[in-house]
Amino acid sequence: MGRRVRWKQRRTSVSVGSGAVWSGLNTIVMKASNIAVTVVVVRLVSPHDFGVFTAALVAGTIATAICELGVASTLIRRDLDLGRLAPTVVAIAWVWAVLLAVVMASAAEPIGIVLGSSEAAEPIRVLALGVALSGFSAVPGSLLARGFKQGSLFLASALAFVPSSALLLFLASGGAGAMAFAWSKVVGGLVSATAMAIFARRWFWPRFDRVAFAEVLRIGIPLAGANLIGYVLLNADFALVGHSLGPAQLGIYSVAFTVSSLSVSVLSSVLNSVAMPAFSEHAGDPAGIRSSVGKWLHAVFLMGAPVCGLTMAFSHEIISVLYGTSWAPAAAVVGILALYGIPMLVELMMSNLLVALGKTGTVLLVQGVWLVVLGLAMAVGLQLVGLTGVAWAHVAVLLGVVLPLQVGLLTRALPRVLAGLWKLAIRPMVATVAAAAIGTALAIPMPTDASRLFVGGAAAALVYAGGLRREWAVYLPALRPGRSALREEA
Protein backbone atom coordinates (compact mmCIF):
# COMPACT_ATOMS: atom_id res chain seq x y z
CA MET A 1 0.00 0.00 0.00
CA GLY A 2 2.81 2.40 0.95
CA ARG A 3 4.61 1.67 -2.30
CA ARG A 4 1.41 2.37 -4.28
CA VAL A 5 0.93 5.70 -2.47
CA ARG A 6 4.53 6.69 -3.15
CA TRP A 7 4.14 5.75 -6.81
CA LYS A 8 0.94 7.83 -7.07
CA GLN A 9 2.66 10.81 -5.42
CA ARG A 10 5.62 10.57 -7.78
CA ARG A 11 3.32 10.19 -10.79
CA THR A 12 1.43 13.30 -9.70
CA SER A 13 4.72 15.14 -9.17
CA VAL A 14 5.82 14.28 -12.70
CA SER A 15 2.41 15.28 -14.11
CA VAL A 16 2.47 18.58 -12.23
CA GLY A 17 6.02 19.26 -13.35
CA SER A 18 5.21 18.45 -16.96
CA GLY A 19 2.05 20.55 -16.77
CA ALA A 20 3.95 23.47 -15.31
CA VAL A 21 6.63 23.32 -18.00
CA TRP A 22 4.09 23.12 -20.84
CA SER A 23 1.89 25.82 -19.33
CA GLY A 24 4.83 28.15 -18.88
CA LEU A 25 6.11 27.37 -22.39
CA ASN A 26 2.64 27.96 -23.81
CA THR A 27 2.35 31.37 -22.22
CA ILE A 28 5.91 32.47 -22.99
CA VAL A 29 5.73 31.45 -26.65
CA MET A 30 2.22 32.78 -27.23
CA LYS A 31 2.87 35.97 -25.28
CA ALA A 32 6.06 36.62 -27.23
CA SER A 33 4.29 35.82 -30.50
CA ASN A 34 1.35 38.08 -29.68
CA ILE A 35 3.68 40.90 -28.68
CA ALA A 36 5.55 40.49 -31.98
CA VAL A 37 2.30 40.73 -33.94
CA THR A 38 1.07 43.64 -31.82
CA VAL A 39 4.36 45.48 -32.37
CA VAL A 40 3.67 45.36 -36.11
CA VAL A 41 -0.05 46.11 -35.85
CA VAL A 42 0.17 49.12 -33.51
CA ARG A 43 2.37 50.79 -36.10
CA LEU A 44 -0.53 50.37 -38.56
CA VAL A 45 -3.24 51.71 -36.24
CA SER A 46 -3.50 54.82 -34.11
CA PRO A 47 -3.66 54.90 -30.28
CA HIS A 48 -7.31 55.91 -30.79
CA ASP A 49 -8.16 52.74 -32.77
CA PHE A 50 -6.28 50.57 -30.30
CA GLY A 51 -8.18 52.24 -27.48
CA VAL A 52 -11.53 51.54 -29.18
CA PHE A 53 -10.65 47.85 -29.38
CA THR A 54 -9.46 47.84 -25.76
CA ALA A 55 -12.82 49.25 -24.68
CA ALA A 56 -14.61 46.46 -26.56
CA LEU A 57 -12.23 43.87 -25.15
CA VAL A 58 -13.07 44.97 -21.60
CA ALA A 59 -16.70 43.99 -22.20
CA GLY A 60 -15.72 40.71 -23.85
CA THR A 61 -13.25 39.77 -21.13
CA ILE A 62 -15.67 40.40 -18.28
CA ALA A 63 -18.43 38.44 -20.04
CA THR A 64 -16.04 35.55 -20.71
CA ALA A 65 -15.18 35.43 -16.99
CA ILE A 66 -18.71 34.23 -16.22
CA CYS A 67 -19.53 32.52 -19.51
CA GLU A 68 -19.92 29.16 -17.73
CA LEU A 69 -20.81 30.40 -14.22
CA GLY A 70 -17.58 28.94 -12.84
CA VAL A 71 -18.92 25.39 -13.07
CA ALA A 72 -16.31 24.17 -15.58
CA SER A 73 -13.61 24.88 -13.02
CA THR A 74 -15.10 22.22 -10.75
CA LEU A 75 -14.00 19.63 -13.30
CA ILE A 76 -10.36 20.61 -12.76
CA ARG A 77 -10.55 19.38 -9.18
CA ARG A 78 -9.26 15.83 -9.18
CA ASP A 79 -11.09 14.98 -5.95
CA LEU A 80 -14.52 15.33 -7.65
CA ASP A 81 -16.33 12.69 -9.77
CA LEU A 82 -15.92 13.68 -13.42
CA GLY A 83 -18.45 11.30 -14.98
CA ARG A 84 -21.24 12.33 -12.62
CA LEU A 85 -20.76 16.10 -12.89
CA ALA A 86 -19.55 16.73 -16.46
CA PRO A 87 -22.87 16.37 -18.40
CA THR A 88 -24.59 18.89 -16.13
CA VAL A 89 -21.61 21.24 -16.39
CA VAL A 90 -21.82 21.05 -20.19
CA ALA A 91 -25.53 21.91 -20.11
CA ILE A 92 -24.98 24.93 -17.87
CA ALA A 93 -21.97 26.20 -19.83
CA TRP A 94 -23.63 25.96 -23.25
CA VAL A 95 -26.94 27.57 -22.30
CA TRP A 96 -25.50 30.33 -20.15
CA ALA A 97 -22.77 31.31 -22.65
CA VAL A 98 -25.26 31.70 -25.50
CA LEU A 99 -27.65 33.77 -23.35
CA LEU A 100 -24.80 35.98 -22.18
CA ALA A 101 -23.59 36.51 -25.76
CA VAL A 102 -27.08 37.58 -26.86
CA VAL A 103 -27.33 40.09 -24.01
CA MET A 104 -23.86 41.44 -24.78
CA ALA A 105 -24.63 41.93 -28.48
CA SER A 106 -27.99 43.55 -27.74
CA ALA A 107 -26.50 46.02 -25.25
CA ALA A 108 -23.34 46.77 -27.27
CA GLU A 109 -24.07 50.47 -27.82
CA PRO A 110 -24.73 51.49 -24.19
CA ILE A 111 -21.79 49.35 -23.06
CA GLY A 112 -19.51 51.19 -25.50
CA ILE A 113 -20.73 54.58 -24.24
CA VAL A 114 -20.06 53.60 -20.61
CA LEU A 115 -16.54 52.53 -21.60
CA GLY A 116 -15.89 55.89 -23.23
CA SER A 117 -16.23 54.96 -26.90
CA SER A 118 -19.49 54.66 -28.82
CA GLU A 119 -17.36 53.35 -31.71
CA ALA A 120 -16.75 50.19 -29.67
CA ALA A 121 -20.33 48.94 -30.25
CA GLU A 122 -19.56 46.99 -33.44
CA PRO A 123 -16.41 45.31 -32.06
CA ILE A 124 -18.42 44.39 -28.95
CA ARG A 125 -21.04 42.65 -31.10
CA VAL A 126 -18.31 40.69 -32.86
CA LEU A 127 -16.66 39.71 -29.57
CA ALA A 128 -20.03 38.40 -28.33
CA LEU A 129 -19.47 35.50 -30.73
CA GLY A 130 -16.27 34.74 -28.84
CA VAL A 131 -18.18 34.69 -25.54
CA ALA A 132 -20.51 32.02 -26.94
CA LEU A 133 -17.52 29.99 -28.13
CA SER A 134 -15.95 30.19 -24.66
CA GLY A 135 -18.93 28.35 -23.22
CA PHE A 136 -18.47 25.49 -25.67
CA SER A 137 -14.71 25.25 -25.06
CA ALA A 138 -14.85 25.53 -21.26
CA VAL A 139 -15.33 21.83 -20.51
CA PRO A 140 -12.70 20.49 -22.97
CA GLY A 141 -10.23 23.01 -21.55
CA SER A 142 -11.00 21.90 -18.00
CA LEU A 143 -10.57 18.24 -18.95
CA LEU A 144 -7.13 18.94 -20.38
CA ALA A 145 -6.12 20.94 -17.29
CA ARG A 146 -7.43 18.19 -15.00
CA GLY A 147 -5.21 15.66 -16.77
CA PHE A 148 -2.21 18.02 -16.70
CA LYS A 149 -2.27 17.98 -20.51
CA GLN A 150 -0.92 21.49 -20.90
CA GLY A 151 0.98 20.32 -23.98
CA SER A 152 -2.35 19.91 -25.76
CA LEU A 153 -3.46 23.35 -24.58
CA PHE A 154 -0.22 24.75 -25.98
CA LEU A 155 -0.85 23.11 -29.34
CA ALA A 156 -4.43 24.44 -29.42
CA SER A 157 -3.15 27.97 -28.76
CA ALA A 158 -0.47 27.62 -31.42
CA LEU A 159 -2.97 26.38 -34.00
CA ALA A 160 -5.27 29.32 -33.22
CA PHE A 161 -2.46 31.87 -33.37
CA VAL A 162 -1.62 31.41 -37.04
CA PRO A 163 -4.99 32.16 -38.70
CA SER A 164 -5.97 34.81 -36.15
CA SER A 165 -2.69 36.70 -36.57
CA ALA A 166 -2.82 36.45 -40.36
CA LEU A 167 -6.34 37.87 -40.34
CA LEU A 168 -5.34 40.64 -37.93
CA LEU A 169 -2.44 41.77 -40.09
CA PHE A 170 -4.54 41.59 -43.26
CA LEU A 171 -7.44 43.60 -41.84
CA ALA A 172 -5.25 46.13 -40.01
CA SER A 173 -3.21 46.85 -43.14
CA GLY A 174 -6.50 47.44 -44.96
CA GLY A 175 -7.61 50.08 -42.47
CA ALA A 176 -10.14 48.01 -40.49
CA GLY A 177 -8.94 49.50 -37.20
CA ALA A 178 -10.57 48.06 -34.08
CA MET A 179 -12.61 45.54 -36.08
CA ALA A 180 -9.38 43.86 -37.17
CA PHE A 181 -8.60 42.94 -33.57
CA ALA A 182 -12.18 41.83 -32.87
CA TRP A 183 -12.49 39.43 -35.81
CA SER A 184 -9.03 37.98 -35.18
CA LYS A 185 -10.07 37.21 -31.59
CA VAL A 186 -13.18 35.34 -32.75
CA VAL A 187 -11.30 33.32 -35.37
CA GLY A 188 -8.64 32.40 -32.82
CA GLY A 189 -11.31 31.34 -30.33
CA LEU A 190 -13.04 29.16 -32.92
CA VAL A 191 -9.84 27.32 -33.89
CA SER A 192 -8.76 26.92 -30.26
CA ALA A 193 -12.17 25.58 -29.17
CA THR A 194 -12.18 23.04 -32.00
CA ALA A 195 -8.65 21.88 -31.19
CA MET A 196 -9.36 21.48 -27.47
CA ALA A 197 -12.50 19.45 -28.18
CA ILE A 198 -10.42 17.09 -30.35
CA PHE A 199 -7.49 16.84 -27.93
CA ALA A 200 -9.69 16.17 -24.88
CA ARG A 201 -10.62 12.78 -26.43
CA ARG A 202 -13.69 12.70 -24.23
CA TRP A 203 -17.00 14.23 -25.15
CA PHE A 204 -19.86 14.81 -22.75
CA TRP A 205 -23.30 15.66 -24.07
CA PRO A 206 -25.43 18.04 -22.02
CA ARG A 207 -27.70 16.39 -19.49
CA PHE A 208 -29.41 17.89 -16.47
CA ASP A 209 -29.11 16.21 -13.10
CA ARG A 210 -30.64 18.01 -10.13
CA VAL A 211 -28.14 16.76 -7.54
CA ALA A 212 -25.14 17.51 -9.76
CA PHE A 213 -26.65 20.90 -10.64
CA ALA A 214 -26.86 21.88 -6.97
CA GLU A 215 -23.32 20.65 -6.29
CA VAL A 216 -21.60 22.39 -9.19
CA LEU A 217 -23.47 25.63 -8.55
CA ARG A 218 -22.52 25.50 -4.87
CA ILE A 219 -18.87 25.33 -5.90
CA GLY A 220 -19.07 27.29 -9.13
CA ILE A 221 -21.19 30.33 -8.26
CA PRO A 222 -18.81 31.72 -5.60
CA LEU A 223 -15.92 30.98 -7.94
CA ALA A 224 -17.71 32.67 -10.85
CA GLY A 225 -18.41 35.63 -8.61
CA ALA A 226 -14.76 35.78 -7.62
CA ASN A 227 -13.72 35.43 -11.27
CA LEU A 228 -16.13 38.17 -12.28
CA ILE A 229 -14.85 40.52 -9.62
CA GLY A 230 -11.29 39.52 -10.51
CA TYR A 231 -11.78 40.35 -14.17
CA VAL A 232 -13.57 43.57 -13.26
CA LEU A 233 -10.54 44.37 -11.11
CA LEU A 234 -8.20 43.67 -14.01
CA ASN A 235 -10.30 45.79 -16.35
CA ALA A 236 -11.67 48.52 -14.08
CA ASP A 237 -8.68 50.71 -14.84
CA PHE A 238 -9.30 50.38 -18.58
CA ALA A 239 -12.96 51.31 -18.11
CA LEU A 240 -12.05 54.28 -15.91
CA VAL A 241 -9.33 55.57 -18.23
CA GLY A 242 -11.51 55.13 -21.32
CA HIS A 243 -14.52 56.81 -19.73
CA SER A 244 -12.50 59.72 -18.29
CA LEU A 245 -9.73 60.32 -20.85
CA GLY A 246 -11.01 58.80 -24.12
CA PRO A 247 -9.83 56.05 -26.49
CA ALA A 248 -6.39 57.52 -27.33
CA GLN A 249 -5.21 57.60 -23.71
CA LEU A 250 -6.80 54.20 -23.17
CA GLY A 251 -4.74 52.83 -26.05
CA ILE A 252 -1.53 54.13 -24.46
CA TYR A 253 -2.48 52.71 -21.07
CA SER A 254 -3.33 49.35 -22.65
CA VAL A 255 0.10 49.07 -24.27
CA ALA A 256 1.75 49.93 -20.95
CA PHE A 257 -0.25 47.30 -19.11
CA THR A 258 0.56 44.65 -21.72
CA VAL A 259 4.30 45.23 -21.45
CA SER A 260 4.38 45.39 -17.65
CA SER A 261 2.29 42.26 -17.13
CA LEU A 262 4.63 39.81 -18.89
CA SER A 263 5.75 37.98 -15.74
CA VAL A 264 2.20 37.92 -14.39
CA SER A 265 0.88 36.48 -17.66
CA VAL A 266 3.48 33.73 -17.81
CA LEU A 267 3.30 32.54 -14.22
CA SER A 268 -0.42 33.18 -13.71
CA SER A 269 -1.12 30.78 -16.56
CA VAL A 270 0.92 28.11 -14.79
CA LEU A 271 -0.72 28.83 -11.44
CA ASN A 272 -4.27 28.77 -12.80
CA SER A 273 -3.89 25.60 -14.85
CA VAL A 274 -1.58 23.53 -12.65
CA ALA A 275 -1.48 24.86 -9.08
CA MET A 276 -5.11 24.27 -8.13
CA PRO A 277 -5.21 20.59 -9.16
CA ALA A 278 -1.80 20.17 -7.51
CA PHE A 279 -3.00 21.77 -4.26
CA SER A 280 -6.26 19.79 -4.28
CA GLU A 281 -4.23 16.58 -4.60
CA HIS A 282 -2.96 17.30 -1.04
CA ALA A 283 -6.43 17.97 0.42
CA GLY A 284 -6.38 16.91 4.08
CA ASP A 285 -2.57 16.89 4.23
CA PRO A 286 -1.35 20.22 5.74
CA ALA A 287 2.31 19.22 5.46
CA GLY A 288 1.91 18.34 1.79
CA ILE A 289 0.08 21.59 1.08
CA ARG A 290 2.76 23.64 2.83
CA SER A 291 5.50 21.90 0.85
CA SER A 292 3.63 22.54 -2.40
CA VAL A 293 3.07 26.20 -1.50
CA GLY A 294 6.77 26.61 -0.79
CA LYS A 295 7.71 25.22 -4.20
CA TRP A 296 5.26 27.53 -5.98
CA LEU A 297 6.46 30.60 -4.06
CA HIS A 298 10.02 29.69 -4.91
CA ALA A 299 9.12 29.57 -8.60
CA VAL A 300 7.21 32.86 -8.40
CA PHE A 301 10.12 34.76 -6.87
CA LEU A 302 12.87 33.06 -8.85
CA MET A 303 11.29 33.64 -12.27
CA GLY A 304 9.07 36.65 -11.66
CA ALA A 305 11.45 38.97 -9.82
CA PRO A 306 13.98 39.54 -12.65
CA VAL A 307 11.28 40.12 -15.27
CA CYS A 308 9.53 42.70 -13.09
CA GLY A 309 12.76 44.37 -12.02
CA LEU A 310 14.26 44.66 -15.49
CA THR A 311 10.96 45.81 -16.99
CA MET A 312 10.95 48.65 -14.47
CA ALA A 313 14.61 49.51 -15.08
CA PHE A 314 14.33 49.58 -18.89
CA SER A 315 10.71 50.72 -19.35
CA HIS A 316 11.58 53.64 -21.64
CA GLU A 317 13.83 51.55 -23.88
CA ILE A 318 11.28 48.71 -24.13
CA ILE A 319 8.48 51.03 -25.28
CA SER A 320 10.72 52.91 -27.69
CA VAL A 321 12.17 49.79 -29.32
CA LEU A 322 8.95 47.80 -29.52
CA TYR A 323 6.31 50.41 -30.28
CA GLY A 324 8.01 53.60 -31.43
CA THR A 325 8.08 57.18 -30.20
CA SER A 326 4.34 57.79 -30.61
CA TRP A 327 3.76 55.46 -27.66
CA ALA A 328 6.43 57.06 -25.41
CA PRO A 329 3.93 58.22 -22.71
CA ALA A 330 3.37 54.55 -21.86
CA ALA A 331 6.89 54.20 -20.41
CA ALA A 332 6.13 55.96 -17.11
CA VAL A 333 3.13 53.70 -16.53
CA VAL A 334 5.18 50.58 -17.36
CA GLY A 335 7.78 51.50 -14.73
CA ILE A 336 5.13 51.68 -12.00
CA LEU A 337 3.05 48.67 -13.00
CA ALA A 338 6.18 46.50 -13.06
CA LEU A 339 6.10 46.73 -9.25
CA TYR A 340 2.68 45.09 -9.35
CA GLY A 341 3.86 41.78 -10.78
CA ILE A 342 5.30 39.80 -7.86
CA PRO A 343 2.61 40.78 -5.30
CA MET A 344 -0.07 39.90 -7.86
CA LEU A 345 1.42 36.45 -8.39
CA VAL A 346 1.56 35.81 -4.65
CA GLU A 347 -2.11 36.84 -4.37
CA LEU A 348 -3.04 34.55 -7.25
CA MET A 349 -1.25 31.61 -5.67
CA MET A 350 -3.09 32.13 -2.38
CA SER A 351 -6.41 32.39 -4.25
CA ASN A 352 -5.74 29.06 -5.97
CA LEU A 353 -4.91 27.50 -2.61
CA LEU A 354 -8.15 28.78 -1.07
CA VAL A 355 -10.15 27.40 -4.00
CA ALA A 356 -8.38 24.03 -3.67
CA LEU A 357 -9.38 24.03 0.01
CA GLY A 358 -13.00 24.68 -0.97
CA LYS A 359 -12.95 28.27 0.38
CA THR A 360 -14.43 29.91 -2.71
CA GLY A 361 -16.54 32.21 -0.55
CA THR A 362 -13.37 33.57 1.05
CA VAL A 363 -11.93 34.29 -2.39
CA LEU A 364 -15.11 36.15 -3.27
CA LEU A 365 -14.84 38.24 -0.10
CA VAL A 366 -11.25 39.25 -0.86
CA GLN A 367 -12.13 40.16 -4.44
CA GLY A 368 -15.09 42.25 -3.28
CA VAL A 369 -13.00 44.27 -0.82
CA TRP A 370 -10.32 44.67 -3.48
CA LEU A 371 -12.78 46.00 -6.05
CA VAL A 372 -14.29 48.60 -3.74
CA VAL A 373 -10.99 49.93 -2.38
CA LEU A 374 -9.25 49.88 -5.78
CA GLY A 375 -12.11 51.73 -7.45
CA LEU A 376 -11.87 54.56 -4.94
CA ALA A 377 -8.06 54.65 -5.10
CA MET A 378 -7.96 54.74 -8.91
CA ALA A 379 -10.52 57.54 -9.07
CA VAL A 380 -8.41 59.63 -6.68
CA GLY A 381 -5.16 58.78 -8.47
CA LEU A 382 -6.59 59.63 -11.88
CA GLN A 383 -7.77 63.02 -10.68
CA LEU A 384 -4.44 63.84 -9.04
CA VAL A 385 -1.82 62.69 -11.57
CA GLY A 386 -3.58 61.02 -14.52
CA LEU A 387 -2.46 57.66 -15.92
CA THR A 388 0.40 57.19 -13.45
CA GLY A 389 -2.04 57.73 -10.58
CA VAL A 390 -4.08 54.76 -11.77
CA ALA A 391 -0.92 52.63 -11.84
CA TRP A 392 0.13 53.68 -8.33
CA ALA A 393 -3.36 52.87 -7.03
CA HIS A 394 -2.95 49.27 -8.23
CA VAL A 395 0.32 48.84 -6.35
CA ALA A 396 -0.78 50.57 -3.13
CA VAL A 397 -4.08 48.69 -2.74
CA LEU A 398 -2.55 45.29 -3.48
CA LEU A 399 0.30 45.73 -0.99
CA GLY A 400 -1.57 47.67 1.68
CA VAL A 401 -5.01 46.03 1.71
CA VAL A 402 -5.38 42.86 -0.33
CA LEU A 403 -2.31 40.83 0.61
CA PRO A 404 -2.62 41.43 4.39
CA LEU A 405 -6.31 40.48 4.25
CA GLN A 406 -5.65 37.35 2.23
CA VAL A 407 -2.76 36.21 4.41
CA GLY A 408 -4.97 36.55 7.48
CA LEU A 409 -7.85 34.59 5.97
CA LEU A 410 -5.59 31.85 4.62
CA THR A 411 -3.77 31.48 7.94
CA ARG A 412 -7.11 31.12 9.71
CA ALA A 413 -8.15 28.38 7.28
CA LEU A 414 -4.80 26.57 7.45
CA PRO A 415 -2.62 27.74 10.38
CA ARG A 416 1.11 28.24 9.74
CA VAL A 417 0.82 27.34 6.06
CA LEU A 418 2.84 30.45 5.17
CA ALA A 419 5.14 30.50 8.21
CA GLY A 420 8.70 31.42 7.27
CA LEU A 421 8.07 31.28 3.52
CA TRP A 422 8.86 34.99 3.15
CA LYS A 423 12.55 34.00 3.33
CA LEU A 424 12.23 32.53 -0.17
CA ALA A 425 12.00 36.07 -1.54
CA ILE A 426 15.24 37.44 -0.10
CA ARG A 427 17.86 36.11 -2.52
CA PRO A 428 15.84 36.66 -5.74
CA MET A 429 14.99 40.22 -4.68
CA VAL A 430 18.58 41.10 -3.77
CA ALA A 431 19.86 39.54 -7.00
CA THR A 432 17.27 41.47 -9.02
CA VAL A 433 18.27 44.82 -7.49
CA ALA A 434 21.96 44.09 -8.13
CA ALA A 435 21.30 42.94 -11.70
CA ALA A 436 19.16 45.99 -12.51
CA ALA A 437 21.74 48.38 -11.05
CA ILE A 438 24.65 46.84 -12.98
CA GLY A 439 22.64 46.58 -16.19
CA THR A 440 21.51 50.21 -15.96
CA ALA A 441 25.06 51.43 -15.29
CA LEU A 442 26.45 49.56 -18.30
CA ALA A 443 23.63 50.82 -20.53
CA ILE A 444 24.17 54.53 -19.83
CA PRO A 445 27.03 55.06 -22.36
CA MET A 446 25.15 53.34 -25.18
CA PRO A 447 24.01 55.71 -27.97
CA THR A 448 20.53 54.32 -28.80
CA ASP A 449 17.55 52.87 -26.98
CA ALA A 450 18.04 49.54 -28.77
CA SER A 451 21.70 49.25 -27.75
CA ARG A 452 20.92 50.27 -24.16
CA LEU A 453 18.21 47.64 -23.95
CA PHE A 454 20.41 44.92 -25.44
CA VAL A 455 23.59 45.64 -23.45
CA GLY A 456 21.87 46.46 -20.17
CA GLY A 457 19.38 43.62 -20.39
CA ALA A 458 22.00 41.02 -21.31
CA ALA A 459 24.34 42.13 -18.52
CA ALA A 460 21.54 42.13 -15.96
CA ALA A 461 20.39 38.66 -17.01
CA LEU A 462 23.92 37.29 -16.65
CA VAL A 463 24.34 38.87 -13.21
CA TYR A 464 21.02 37.46 -12.01
CA ALA A 465 21.63 33.97 -13.38
CA GLY A 466 25.14 33.88 -11.94
CA GLY A 467 24.09 35.20 -8.55
CA LEU A 468 21.41 32.54 -8.18
CA ARG A 469 23.15 29.63 -9.88
CA ARG A 470 22.59 27.50 -6.77
CA GLU A 471 18.81 28.02 -6.98
CA TRP A 472 18.70 27.33 -10.71
CA ALA A 473 20.81 24.18 -10.28
CA VAL A 474 18.33 22.83 -7.73
CA TYR A 475 15.14 24.01 -9.38
CA LEU A 476 15.51 23.18 -13.05
CA PRO A 477 16.61 19.52 -12.81
CA ALA A 478 13.93 18.78 -10.20
CA LEU A 479 11.60 17.39 -12.84
CA ARG A 480 14.04 14.83 -14.22
CA PRO A 481 14.81 12.63 -11.18
CA GLY A 482 11.07 12.24 -10.55
CA ARG A 483 10.59 10.96 -14.08
CA SER A 484 13.27 8.29 -13.76
CA ALA A 485 12.05 7.36 -10.28
CA LEU A 486 8.58 6.85 -11.69
CA ARG A 487 9.93 4.49 -14.33
CA GLU A 488 11.78 2.48 -11.66
CA GLU A 489 8.65 2.12 -9.51
CA ALA A 490 6.55 1.16 -12.53
Question: What does it look like?
Answer:
The protein is mainly alpha-helical. It has one domain. Helices cover 82% and strands 0% of the residues. The protein has helices at 2-41, 47-65, 82-106, 108-114, 121-146, 150-173, 178-200, 210-245, 247-260, 262-281, 286-313, 315-323, 330-337, 341-356, 360-385, 387-413, 426-443, 449-467, 469-475, 479-489.
Structure summary:
The chain is mostly helical. Helix content is 82%, strand content 0%. The protein has helices at 2-41, 47-65, 82-106, 108-114, 121-146, 150-173, 178-200, 210-245, 247-260, 262-281, 286-313, 315-323, 330-337, 341-356, 360-385, 387-413, 426-443, 449-467, 469-475, 479-489.
Structure keywords:
membrane; transmembrane helix; Poly_Biosynth_Transport; 490 residues; 0% strand
How are the secondary structure elements laid out?
Elements: H1 2-41, H2 47-65, H3 82-106, H4 108-114, H5 121-146, H6 150-173, H7 178-200, H8 210-245, H9 247-260, H10 262-281, H11 286-313, H12 315-323, H13 330-337, H14 341-356, H15 360-385, H16 387-413, H17 426-443, H18 449-467, H19 469-475, H20 479-489
Pfam family, one: Polysacc_synt_3
GO cellular component, one term: plasma membrane
Transmembrane segments: 21-44, 50-73, 85-106, 126-145, 152-172, 178-199, 211-232, 252-275, 296-315, 327-350, 362-385, 391-412, 424-444, 450-468
